[in-house]
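Write out the 3D structure for:
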Amino acid sequence: MGKKMILGLVFALGANMAFADNGCFPENDLKFSHKTKSANMSKAEFDQVIKRALDVYGPIVKKKYGKKLIIDGEWENDRVNAHATRDDHNNPVISLLGGMARHPEMSKDGLMLIICHEIGHQFGGAPKQFRGSSSLRSWSSAEGQADYFAATKCLPKMFADTEETKLVNSMSDEESFEDARKKCKDDICVRIVLAGYSVGKVFASLKTGWEPPRIGEQDRFQVPMTEYKHPRPQCRLDTYVSGANCEVDREKNFDDVDPKIGACYRAENGYDDARGARPRCWYHPEVYFK
């Protein structure tokens, strides 16, 4: 068997299982050549982001799950995407493609969000994707849930350096910073929203007809049932904004079965609250278990 098997099976640590491939973005033909100098990110900066993620989240994965976090930085791969898989020992494996880092809208914080999104596929809990066309649940969290995990659990740890966060925020464009500050409760939240804005603009560039998201706006569409694939760009940004504002303990894990555990929600009836909870543009709480 190869080191990375791209198959799907229900998630269960320690059980016999195969492996799924989860792209942060839909498959696309967009490329940015490694032979052309990038204006926004060098290989050294690309490697630095990966090292930070391994230094911060590697010990967490080891302590909580007894696994090794593996991040493969494929700098010379010109495609725009990232993928989550598991190896033969059930270790989480993340592949970051260099074309994504060279996208003109991608920031270093945006790249860190991508890593957190892929970690979210591994450990983000419910709602889980379905296994193929069956009614069985995969080991992988839904795309929207991976975004929600990134904003609620992962990025706050990556951005924990208060002075660094203030510096990064101060270097952002003034309009975006002011819009993010209106949405946020603290500096870390602002930084997460700005990272999400970067990723949202990259995401919008991949499909004709998709509009770039805006921090000051909101996707008002409400899904009749939970969406497990990639939400629209504005909806993804809304998820980052909500997750960054969730005040549930960041150390409280999401559950693999019950979406309420570790998340913000309106307790009296299970509907999402406007602040901190999964947005209704991709998540419908009443139909997850059906």
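Residues 22-287 form one domain.
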